[in-house]
Every structure is written in structure tokens, then in C-alpha cells.
Amino acid sequence: MENQNKNILIDFEPISRRVYYLDKTFYEILLKINVPIQSLCGGSGTCGKCKILIQKGSEYLIPPTNDEQKLLSENDLANGWRLACRAKIDSTFLKSLEKKDKPQFRIFLPEDFLLEDFKILTSGAQKEINLNPTVKKIYLEVEKPSLEKPISDFERVLNAIKTYQNTQMCNESLYIDINLLNKLSRILRESDHKITITIWNEKEIIDVETGDLIQHNYGIAFDIGTTTIVGYLMNLNNGKIYSLASKLNQQTAYGEDLITRITYIRNHENGLEKLNAAVLEGLNDIIVKTCEKAKIQPSQIYEATVVGNSVMHHIFLGLNPINIGLSPYVPLVQKGLNYKAKGLDLNICHRGNVYSAPLVAGFVGADTMGVILSSKIEDEKELTLAIDIGTNGELVIGNQNILATGSCAAGSALEGAHIKDGMRAAAGAIERIKIEPDTLDVTYATIKNKKPIGICGSGLVDAIAEMLKAKIIMRSGNFNKNSIDNERLIRTDHKLEFVIAKKEETSIGREISLSQNDIRQMQMAKAAFYSGMRIILKKLKSINDSMDLDIKQIFLAGAFGNYIDKENTKFIGMIPDIPNEKIFQIGNAAGTGAQICLLNKDYRQTAQDLLNRIKYVEIATDKTFQREYAEAMYFPHLNLEYFPSLKEYTNIPKR
Amino acid sequence: MENQNKNILIDFEPISRRVYYLDKTFYEILLKINVPIQSLCGGSGTCGKCKILIQKGSEYLIPPTNDEQKLLSENDLANGWRLACRAKIDSTFLKSLEKKDKPQFRIFLPEDFLLEDFKILTSGAQKEINLNPTVKKIYLEVEKPSLEKPISDFERVLNAIKTYQNTQMCNESLYIDINLLNKLSRILRESDHKITITIWNEKEIIDVETGDLIQHNYGIAFDIGTTTIVGYLMNLNNGKIYSLASKLNQQTAYGEDLITRITYIRNHENGLEKLNAAVLEGLNDIIVKTCEKAKIQPSQIYEATVVGNSVMHHIFLGLNPINIGLSPYVPLVQKGLNYKAKGLDLNICHRGNVYSAPLVAGFVGADTMGVILSSKIEDEKELTLAIDIGTNGELVIGNQNILATGSCAAGSALEGAHIKDGMRAAAGAIERIKIEPDTLDVTYATIKNKKPIGICGSGLVDAIAEMLKAKIIMRSGNFNKNSIDNERLIRTDHKLEFVIAKKEETSIGREISLSQNDIRQMQMAKAAFYSGMRIILKKLKSINDSMDLDIKQIFLAGAFGNYIDKENTKFIGMIPDIPNEKIFQIGNAAGTGAQICLLNKDYRQTAQDLLNRIKYVEIATDKTFQREYAEAMYFPHLNLEYFPSLKEYTNIPKR
Prior knowledge:
The structure is a homodimer.
Chain A: E1 5-13, E2 17-21, H1 26-32, E3 51-56, H2 66-71, H3 74-78, E4 81-83, H4 91-96, E5 104-108, E6 119-122, E7 125-128, E8 135-141, H5 153-164, E9 175-176, H6 178-190, E10 194-200, E11 204-210, E12 218-224, E13 228-235, E14 241-248, H7 258-267, H8 271-294, E15 301-308, H9 310-317, E16 337-340, H10 341-344, E17 353-356, H11 366-375, E18 384-388, E19 392-398, E20 403-409, E21 429-435, E22 442-446, E23 454-455, H12 457-469, E24 489-492, E25 495-501, E26 512-515, H13 516-543, E27 553-557, H14 558-563, H15 566-571, E28 583-587, H16 589-599, H17 602-613, E29 615-617, H18 625-632
Parallel strand pairs in A: 1-5, 9-11, 12-15, 15-17, 18-27, 20-29, 21-23, 27-28
Antiparallel strand pairs in A: 1-2, 3-4, 3-5, 6-7, 8-10, 10-11, 12-13, 13-14, 16-17, 18-19, 19-20, 21-22, 24-25, 25-26
């Protein structure tokens, strides 16, 4: 992106998008990064719809313009509200900045602001999603029956549909359930034969209402993560997100990771039922929450789409996931599925449909399918690597010609687990770290500027990279005991640790540090990704030796992928050595996949077609895996030739 | 039929088919009248499969042949068992008969005997039904999963189907419910991956079983009458009827006729639920009974087809029939419907399908559609009238070019209701009557030769015809008081009655007689049919004046239609005056319609297509109806020109 200043960070909340400064209004920046925003006047400062709240850094902006003074109340202005199309960072402030200054801005986007056309990001270019939802609502004025034309209630409704539009929607096999048929008969007479019907997929009438209610046509897209569930409530007529909500997956009470949960199911009668009820509680809470925000009824949500890893997928549907955990790790079913909401106990319209996206394999789930769908990797010209970073890292490598995936057990180091002072990305987490190579002085930033209480994933990546550059650790990952003598290198239980935040700086009553074991955990995680990628590439090579298998482009998906420092991620050898401008942070691409499946059913067919195209590579059982993994344990790799641009490594000792 | 001797009647039980004597073996007679029978040797007397029991008249048969002595046990022979392909009536006995002798034969066909290919009767010619059921079973040996091919359980099954046969059955949208998917996964592993799957309509997998069970593929066809329910259990692989059972419709507890039942629903909370439960009790009893006879499990019945009048149709499905009883008398839905057995509480395979045939109109139901389908009236060259005789008489008039229906309120006189000594066709009912014109002596036959207790429909038709021929009544239906003076004409409460069976002959302690009111009821019934037919013909004439609208052929459907005397039915003016050989008694044509829909799904599309072709005529609201009805009250009609062949009428006074 042009005119970036990497010293200035702007965080947009609540959508958690972080961008570098651009010399543009916030409205223009948001357009640039494809955040759907609402504006009636197109950013000309006349409609006043693009109100935003500057939570941090308001003092560095240009003063409120005339337009803003006209369109915002005094109270609003006093509380930090601005118009996104007018407010921008003051250029005189920028000029006054010294090199060490790293100002941060935090900007809150109100819910209303986000209600806009939905687009997806593909390799930096935005793409409009054509609307083609499965659910369509039609307002009908139905003919009344007479002795001359004693046609049944349902057949008169079918005739009205035919008259309304010459559509495939109306054929003799259009299904309607018994209860709705009885309701149809009653509502016809109560409504003077003026009704709204809701048709799913041109196959079934799923609702009948009195009068004209075609505007109220909603769907919800879910991303069921092992830890977190997110739901996006959307209007299917216009593709806008009306509200969103997220929640902890209550299944964590039965185990942090997937294998623990599968074990729980194996060892407990009704284990599956309990875990299924836990995830449904979360989904139904999100339904209530998003509906309250958007002021609609859950019964007006006619379809839900769901992505999630294979185990979450199975448990949500009530399918037994045990065989996913046993060799050869097969799911019960892979294809995209449609089930009635009622049968799944999802509290949207009873007759509404729940679509769950297909699974690529046992360990490459519908979430990865969501990443592929939303990143459109199969349309890329250049060979592209997409990584969804989590406890299980999913890798996708592909372009117009090939498409392969694999899964690697990255461990949960990046989520803060098994790290002495690790934590999730929450207030007080150290998320950015810089180490002065000469003095080993550490500067850091925490989330919400709270006193530090731990280090989150992006902080860990920074810490390792900076410790390497400062030669505190060697390429083997071992502490460089011989070359350093600094108060920050301490010994606890006879083991070395490097202090990131001193005791007096933290709010936990002791220092925050990285141990040798912490570094190992990070090595294992990054080695898993890099060796996984290597194995997939080798497999592709073995299929077609003439293929050009250089990664030219990288998509980093997921919340972690969005916050991580690209340069440092590359520096520790987690991803291949390609220019930063070819590395894209694509956000919650899995969730975006669920959304596009909701708005356009053609993507469901695409997903199904991709199933047949995607080559699944079983990484861990590959016979070269152990060697690849061991070599990738080095920073950035045993073979420095793989990382030609990382010149600093010439000074860092190997072991 | 050739070589008929109308003095000799042969009743085949339990199928209640009555035929006149033919100079043939019983095997040949049964073939002739299209009763499906079992024989391995094709009637050559070598397989011994065609065992029948002679219940009445065995003394008039030829003695057991050598073949029979070889193939039947002594005990069998002693008890009256014969081989149908060998036994016939003795010609010497025939020659010894005097004109007044009217011997009867009753022959019982064991259940096994009937297990044969299913055919339908159309204007006297039999037609093979091609098998094309919706339910297909496939035995599969499914590939096991491996690390090299870690394909999901369901996708491996789909692949096996594709390998098995290149069929439309296997496409990505093949549905399977969650519970069955879990079962599939379990059964695959329990059965060493050798399974039988059951597919409905190339759309859904509805069962998964261990091993090869493709032979066990059953369906059941139901005819839900207002009074009686009949069920036919059939094997869908070979089209054979495996067993049948019938039962009183328990709804009669809530009202004898349809209007009473609709009124009950309107006036009682849960009225619909109660009537629905009543009919389901009957259907589920029949399922148990037929399964026991055929030694199969109800869960192996994968589909049920249902015909019935519109009110029975609605109540069975749980649809509110109230609007059928209110002008303009529209049903809630007309088209053929498919619902899950479980949702309807029908105790076949839970995931099995229930198909209910389409309704022509509020008062012309799926039973009439069944009559049309099985009689193939729409393929006839000659203009044909089909009458399904019941409380509501349904009329169908059509040929290759036109097709029209209407319903007339015939009343339940023909079922014995509102008739002083009327009764249903049961043991002790007078079913045949002859009156000597000179002496007015009455001879009669009763069902099962019991002492008479009343008169059933066919007896009533005979009685009226004979009373006319004997000039006991006049063409107006009034007793001919001036011309007769006979002990059989008695007065009760100052009203005339004609005695059919004298007090000493009956088992009810008094005489059985016909009153003036009884004659009126019969006049109203026959007038309803004839005038109904006239109204439909007039309507067709008004549409196309050049059309030839002479009825050339008549199909009499239903149990009553099967037992009635053709000549006398014509004589009283209930049906048009055409030669007897053009009048066909086609049995329970409605039930046959349900059976052919079960065996070949193409007929369901035919039914749907017919819906658009059939012209429904509202008879009672036609402005000429009153006059037509009044004229048809005369015997045979006010206008004798309509019945040119009934020469006897020249002697019968008009009023």
C-alpha cells in the first residue's frame, strides 16, 4: 500500500483490523482495506452517516472541519466523535515525529457504520459478491376460490407464484410441510389473501406471513472455532452485515484442544450430546444477541451457514467425531450438508436451513474451505501459500493449476499455551517487542496500553526475532551464553531466561521473561508450518516435476495472522522469504467464507467442486517429514539459502 | 365373456370376485378375470402350487385327477383341496341342471396363491405394470479408508454406488439424515464394509443394513375409505402382493359420514388430532397384520401410498378439512404429496416415504384419481363412464380426448342406511332377489346362505327392478295400489310395504320388506348418479358441441359395483342403457390405483399431469340440476327414449 508509515499504527475496533498510517481520511483508509462502511453521500461530508469515535490519538488529528461542526453535536465533538470522511491525521504532527516515536491510534466504528455491502479481499483487490441467496421472499396477492374455480389453497398460491414471476421457484415438487400448509390456509383467509412466502432454494416454502414482509429476509454466518464462536447476522436481500457477536465455545469446559474433546466423547456416555449442547448454547446466544442488536426476530433468520474444523463440524451436527482421532483419520462425511434448523436445535426459523461447508479432510476442515473460498486462491496466477494459524495450522498451496492442503500440529504456543508467560491476545498482553542490540534494552507495547501481564502470539514472534538480531539466542534456538552478559539474562532453577518486562513494570509482581523451553515451543510451532509447507511442495513436485514451485504470495488468515509482524514472522523462518508487499493479512477468512456461502449459493457448488480438485497431503506420515522438521527447527532454517534476503543472519551464530 | 352360464355363480374368496360359470378350469377362469395367481408350471398340473379350497359345491366338480392325487395329500383331498389348474365343474352335472336350478360355488384362494405379478384391468384387457418403484436397495462392498486415501465414510459409500452402477442415484445432493449417518459409520465397521443401502427416489438414503438384504424391499398401498381401510403389502422388487388386510375406519366413532366428521372437527378442540389418531390406529394395525402374515418387519416397509376421498386425505395427513365442507368447497392442497412416515406417525421405516395421490377437487378425491389411474380411462378410444359407488358417488367421463369428473350426493341407501331393513353386505344380507310377476312369489339368495336379516345394496337394486317388472311399483316409484292385491303388500302405520322375506323365513322375528320411503331413497340415489352424469355430459357439450357424447362403455368400481346386477342397475335407470358386455366391474379400482403408484412412480407423474387435464364439474350448483334430478327420479327416467332397450317398460304404468 502506498505512503505507508510503519511507525504509525491505526487499530479499528470492534473489527480488530490494524493498518499502517496512510495519508488519507479514515473513510478512505477503510475503503482501501475493504471494511464495508455506510455513507449516503459517498464521503463528501454531507450525510453525517460515517460517525466514528476516536478512542486514542484524537489530539494528533486535524481539528474538526466545518462539515463536522455542522453535522455533529457539541456533545459528540467533546466526546471524540468525528466524521470518517473528514478526519485524518494532522500532517504537521507527522512532520514533528522523531524516528523513535511510534504513536498509536484506536478508532471505534459503531455498529451502524458497518452495515454495508459485503465484499471480499483477494490478494489485495476487493471483489463484489453477487447476491444469490438460497432464501427468497415473495409478496403475493392470491386469487380467492370460487365455485367456478374451486382451486385448493396451495394450488392458488402456486398459481400466484407463477404469475408473479416465471420462475423455477414454482414447480409441482415445491415442498411445504403439513403444519405450514395448515398455517397457509389460515393466513390466506386472515390476510385477505395477501401474504409473503419464503422459499428455500427453489425447493421448499419455509414460511408464510401476513402482508408484505419481504424486507425481513435474514441469514447468519457462523465460524465455530475450537475456542471462539463468531456469528454475522446479514440481510440476504442487500448483503449487509446487520450485527455481529462472538462468544467463547463452551466446549472448552470439556477440554482445551480437539483430541481432549474426542477423548471425552469416547469415554463418556452422552459425551457427544453434552459437547453438542455446549456449542449450541453458544450459537443460540449469538443468535439472540445479534437479533437484539438488529431489532429483528430469530424466526426471521431463514438460513445459517457454518464453517469450522472437522471436529467442531461433527460435534455441531451431532456426528460422532471419534474416527477423526484414529488412523487413518477419516471424517464421517465431507460434502457440504443441508439440514433443518429444528433438527439441529438451532433457534432460527424452525424450517430454516443450516448449511455446513464441506471438509477437505479429517484435519483440514470447513474452516480451511472457508479460507480458500474467500481468498479465491484457486483463481490466483502466482503460486500462493495461505496459512490459517491456530493450534492446528492449516496450509493451502495453490493457484489456477494446482491446489493442495495439509495440516500441521503447530501446538498452541502461538495462543500462549505452554509458554511460561504466554497468554491470549487480551488487555495487558505484550504484542510488540523491540530489543536494542547493543544494550539489550527492551521496548514493548501492550494491548489497550495496560501494564503487562504476559506475552501474546505476535509478541512472542517479535521477541524471538529481536533476540536473534541481538544475538541473545543462536540459530539453534539455544541461548548464546558465551557472548552475552546482561542483567536481563537471568537464571531460574538453573535455567536461563531473558527478561522482557522487569518486575517493576508488570502488574503480576514479577518479571515477564522467555525461557529456553518457551523458545523451543516457538521453534516447534514455526518448524511445523515451514516443514509442512515443504512436504506439500515436494508432493506437488513428485506429481509434476516441471512445475514452478516457488511461493510468490502469502495469505495470513485468522486473528493471529492479522496482528503478526510480517517481517519478524519471516525472520524466524515461519513463512518463506518473499517481499513483504506480497504477504497479505486477510483477516478471519474462514468466517468470510461462511458469509459468502450465505449470500451466494454458487459458492457452495464451488466448494463442492473444489473438494474434488484439492489434493490433501498427509504431512506427518511423509517419510521425509522428520528430517524436514528437524532442519526447520533452526532459525530461520538449517539451510540459509532458503532465506537469501535475511542478511542479518550472517552475524548470528548457528549453535 | 364366452360360454357364460348366468345361472351358475362362482365366488372367489377372500378377494370377493364373483363370476358366472365358464367351461374352464378354475385356473383358467382366474386368469381370464385377471386375478393374479401363482403357478410355476403354467397350469400343466406338475408344480402343485395352485392349491385352492372348495368351500361350496365340491360335489359338482370332476373327481380329483391323477395329478391332484399325486400332488395333494389324502388329508388335503378329504378336506376339499384341489388344484386350480385341474379342477372344473363336471359337464355331466351341467347337463342334468334344470332351468330353475341355480347352483353356487364358493372357492377359497389361500394367501400364497395370490402372490403374483401385479396387473391391472382396463376395459377387460389386462395390462402388465412395469416396475419402477421409488425405493431401490443396493448391496455394496465399500472400500476401506487408508492413510493414502483418507476418504470419509459417506464419500466412500457414494463412490461404491458410482462403481456399482453409473446411476443418477449417486449425486452430491443425495441426502442422508444425521442419525443414519452415524449409523452408517458404525455399520460399515461392524459389517466389514459390506452393507445394503436403501435409496428413495434417487434423492435420499433412507436405510443402511449389515450384509446383503436387497430382497427385503417392501411397500404398502392403502385405500382409506370413509368406512373401511384396506392395505396391500407388496414386494417392490417383484411387484407381488405378499399379504393384505382390512379394517373398519375407527373414525366412524366420531360420525358415519364426512360432513359429521368435519362438524366434529369444527366443534371440538383437538377434534382433528382425534380423528387423525383414529385413522392411524387402523393403518398401523393393518401394517402389523400384513407384516405378520408375510413374516417381515414393519421397518422393512420403505414406502406407503395412500388414496382416499379429500376429507380422509386431509385428516390422515393432519390437514384441517373444514374448508372442504364450506362453499366453494376447496381442499387445502390438491397435488400429490410426499411426507416422511415418522412425521405422519405411520409405523413403517421412520425415514420411509408416504405418498398421497392428488385430489381432483373437494368432493372428488384421491380415490377417484386411483380409479382413473387403474382404469386408464384417459387411454380409452370410446367414451367411457366410470362410477365409484358410495355415499358420495364419483363420476368420471372420458376417453383419449376428454376427461371430466363430478361428485353426486347419492346418500347411503346403497350401503343400507336410511332403508328400513337395509344393511351392509354381510352374512345374512339378501343380495339377489327374483319376483315372479304373476304370483309375486319372491326367491332370494343371502350372503353365506344365512337366514336373512336384511337387504344389502345389490339386493335393493334387484328388489326395485323386480318390483317394477312385476308392476308392484310404477315408474314414479309409487306403489301401484290399484292393480295389485297380494298378501305381500302389507300396511304398517297406514303405509304400504312389500314383503321380500316372510317372518318365518327370517332370523329377526319379523318380515323383511321395502317401504315407500325405501323406494324413495333408492330413487334419490339412482337419480343422483344419472342426473350427475347428464350434467357432466351437458357441460362437455357446451365446451365442444361437435363432440360425440354417447356413453359407449361403463366401469363399475368399488365393492358394490362388483356385486351389483348389471342388468337391474340399468333397469332402474342408474346407468345408461348400453349392452351388458360393455359394462365392466373393475373391483376396488381406487386401491388398485394406490398399488400401481407404489410399483411404478411414473404413475404419480401421470396423476399430476391428469390434474391439469381433468375438468371438474360442480354438479349440484348447475342451474339445470334440479330439473335433471327430478326427471331422473322416474324409473328408468321421465324420458323413456334414453333407455330404448328396456322393452318391459311399455307395460309399466308411469304414475
